[in-house]
Write a structure and sequence with these properties.
There is one protein chain. By secondary structure, the chain is of the alpha/beta class. It has 2 domains: about 200 residues, P-loop containing nucleotide triphosphate hydrolases (Rossmann fold, 3-Layer(aba) Sandwich); about 45 residues, no CATH class. Helices cover about 45% and strands about 10% of the residues. The protein contains 14 helices and 7 strands. The longest helix is centred in the C-terminal third of the chain and has 22 residues. It is globular, with a radius of gyration of 20 Å.
Length: about 300
């Protein structure tokens, strides 16, 4: 019996560092299969618990059952921050290739906060206050509504040097390809071409490059939560009295009115400098580890 397809490369994070864009680019390549959902999160049960998108091996393998290519991948950004994920991935696929995407830690924290506010896992809208708040976060909507958010905190999320080192120690430098967000933003086509070469597929395939996951700001968290997961009574009434096309048009209109795609406001200069000092040593260690000049991340 032919063995079931299984992934042999992993985009492991960091979050908010271009992983969604890279995932979208790679899945269009005819020699690559990328699974759905984009983030199974299967190997990070230590930091995600039962809030992973995929929690059993059989369900995980089902994500790849339609693969007909030699190069098969997935992208779960929680793997980078998980102490156990590197070992579990290696046990599952000893020859796995690993893509790590990295970004200025301060920008990652800000982007993660914005995503949490929009996505329903963060109720403190002000980033400065949310950063070190010990208030428990609970999901406002979605399948885990009311549950405590099980994730790394903002600060733990971006201590990158030990996270990257775990993967280097587990897989070796030759099986790891590091992408720095600054380079990706500057020349996405070149970065994608280098990633294709690392994966051993044709690097000459011209991948379309579009903006993915632009920053979003919402006018009302209440409206956003209702749009994401309407109460069953409202869903029932809408289905009873409105055709599907009208419901979809109404939902799209309300979402467009409530969500704005805007650049993040400039951070207070002194506050940013304080954060840069907090992460300066880790950035220096990371720079040495990946042999990349990251001095522009820390200006103090």
């Amino acid at each position: 019996m032919e063995a079931s397809p299984k992934p042999n490369f992993f985009i492991v994070g960091a979050p908010k560092s271009g992983t969604t864009a890279l995932y979208c680019y790679l899945r269009q390549h005819p020699e690559i299969f990328m699974c759905k959902p984009k983030e199974p999160q299967f190997f990070a049960d230590d930091i995600c618990g039962d809030q992973r998108n995929v929690t059993t091996l059989s369900a995980y393998l089902d994500c790849f059952k339609e693969a007909r290519t030699r190069v098969i991948g997935e992208s779960s950004t929680c793997y980078l921050g998980s102490p156990i994920a590197p070992g579990r991935i290696r046990e599952f696929c000893p020859q796995a290739r690993i893509i790590i995407m990295l970004r200025n830690p301060i920008d990652v924290m800000r982007a993660q906060h914005s995503e949490g506010v929009v996505g329903g896992s963060e109720h403190i809208v002000d980033f400065d206050l949310a950063l070190d708040s010990q208030e428990p976060r609970r999901y406002r909507s979605g399948p885990f509504k009311g549950q405590k958010v099980v994730r790394l905190g903002y600060r733990d999320l971006v201590i990158f040097s030990p996270q990257v080192k775990r993967f280097v120690d587990t897989f070796g430098h030759s099986n790891i390809h590091v992408i720095v967000y600054d380079e990706f933003a500057k020349d996405a086509r070149l970065v994608c071409k280098n990633a294709l070469a690392f994966l051993g597929v044709s690097p000459n395939y011209e991948l379309p490059v579009d903006v993915v996951n632009a920053n979003r700001r919402i006018r009302s968290t209440i409206i956003q939560d209702l749009l994401r997961r309407p109460p069953k009574t409202i869903q029932g009434l809408a289905r009873a009295f409105l055709p599907r096309s009208t419901r979809q048009m109404a939902a799209t209109y309300l979402n467009n009115q409530n969500v704005q795609f805007v650049p993040r406001p400039v951070m207070d200069r002194e506050f940013r400098k304080r954060l840069e000092r907090d992460y300066a040593e880790d950035v220096r260690q990371l720079s040495r580890l990946i042999d990349r000049d990251l001095s522009n991340w820390i200006t103090t």
